[in-house]
Amino acid sequence: MTPLSRIRNFSIVAHIDHGKSTLADRLIQLTGTVAERDMKDQLLDAMDIERERGITIKANTVRIDYPAKDGNTYVLNLIDTPGHVDFAYEVARSMQAVEGSLLVVDATQGVEAQTLANVYTAIDADHEIVPVLNKVDLPASDPDRVREQIEDVIGIDASEACLISAKTGVGIPDVLEAIVNKLPPPDEGDADKPLKAMLVDSKYDQYLGVIVIVRVIDGTLKKGDRIRMMKTGGTYDVDDVGVYRPAMTAVESLGPGEIGYLNASIKQVRDTRVGDTITHEKKPCETALPGFKPSVPVVFCGLFPVDANDFEDMRDAIEKLALNDASFTYEMETSAALGFGFRCGFLGLLHLEVIRDRLEREYGIELITTAPSVIYHLYTKDGERRDLHNPADMPDMTTVGHIEEPRIKATIMVPDEYLGDVLKLCQERRGLQMDLTYVGGRAMAVYDLPLNEVVFDFYDRLKSVTKGYASFDYEMIGYREDNLVKMSILVNDEPVDALAMMVHRDRAEMRGRAMCEKLKELIPRHMFKIPIQAAIGAKVIARETLSAMRKDVTAKCYGGDASRKKKLLEKQKAGKKKMRQFGKVEIPQEAFISALKMDS
Length: 600
Ligand SMILES: Nc1nc2c(ncn2[C@@H]2O[C@H](COP(=O)(O)OP(=O)(O)OP(=O)(O)O)[C@@H](O)[C@H]2O)c(=O)[nH]1
Hints:
It is a peripheral membrane protein. By secondary structure, this protein is of the alpha+beta class. 26% of the residues lie in helices and 33% in strands.
């Protein structure tokens, strides 16, 4: 067992793309943790989608043995955390398992919204923080300015920040020394006390079942132990304990301060609660760790197979995905327009995209995605609350007293010249300005915004109006009443449930008009005329008409036989009526998403 003084547990916090994964790769490589021939980029990003998009989704850990300049060999446990706002919550919880953080800031960019959000999470977790300025190989890097910015904005000393290039490897040895010399070893832990370990994360492996990442506080965890999860009450026999190097490597035992995995024939990820305390069944520890609240989905949408025959396959696939991801929820849904499918809940839009991508790619199921929506609180006139996950389920307005919607506090950092556009965008999305400050040549705007206005394409719009220079982060702040209504879309006089949405009354007409116009472009012409309408209750607030594809039946009627011409036209009209009655309008798949994009 490693003495505590030779252990350093840390995470790396950074804004997306500032080089966190590349730095992790270099640390692993330089310490020879992985043989050179096995080295590939982004070692810790296991999933294809993570690799492709260059984002980290689940927390990963790796154990590195580092022979330091002081002659001792240290065990460094790195937890790589997700960088995207959707997964901010996962960052917060994995931080609890370590004592320090490397704060990576791109020296060409400076402090961004997620740098702040993530570093504050680290500070909240009482971390010691070592600033690292990355990408100094690039001519545009300006370490002095960024150092000053870190001091001004975050308020930590950056005078001894490591200057590195994770790409070329410059400065990496300094980072390793800083980890050993500046980050603290784990707080006291006692190997002789009853086992107390924190459940840091869990993931599903198709061969091994659920793998649990643990951080031992007191006691020793080894193969054959019978353990109990103190929150959920589940008891299991430990089949294996080990560490990631980054390949899974079995070890004899895990002692105080150590981070590793256990495998105990646990069936599904849902049976493990992040933050739970793991102890021995026979000789349990007295008090459990404080634990975390479970992460809850905030964005919902319907997923339907394009081909109804794929429904059963889709059910299998969704069940498998849910095994691995406790924050993803689903229930069966039927839609008049789309048939059988699932109403699914996600942590955010990226999470949604990741799951959808995996269903399509790994399971080969083509999907229709309906408009993402948030959870509204409906109150009856007697003050009773009901949660609305799907606008299609909205009851008659006369039974509803008031509606509350979720709001977020959004922090946006942007270079001065784009500030005007950002403020305009926030205003358009019903935002209320909470704060506006300037730090190191950039503006920081804080807005109170309805989540509903953000889930769809806010991030895309923000990127486009600022040419990619803005950064964005948000947190939920609670529910507030507003004048909200359900807007239905009727195509050929039939309401299309999958296109129904909740909107603010003042914006309903504009949104309705935009939707109808978009749909008119997206729906191909049929043999008959198709009215496209937006309505609140029975009141139509916008309308477009898609004209019929017209066969020129009179073309053959040369000459002037007017009565014959008339007869033909009448026949055609009757035919059209028939079509209208029986014919079904084909709405192309992309219409369900494209119609909602609001180009202002
Ligand atoms: N020139 C240069 N490019 C770098 C350096 N470090 C990282 N990059 C590049 O910057 C991009 C982002 O790096 P990542 O390591 O994937 O960023 P990340 O912070 O891990 O991103 P997430 O995992 O999504 O949070 C990649 O294209 C890297 O090749 C560096 O020191 N110099």
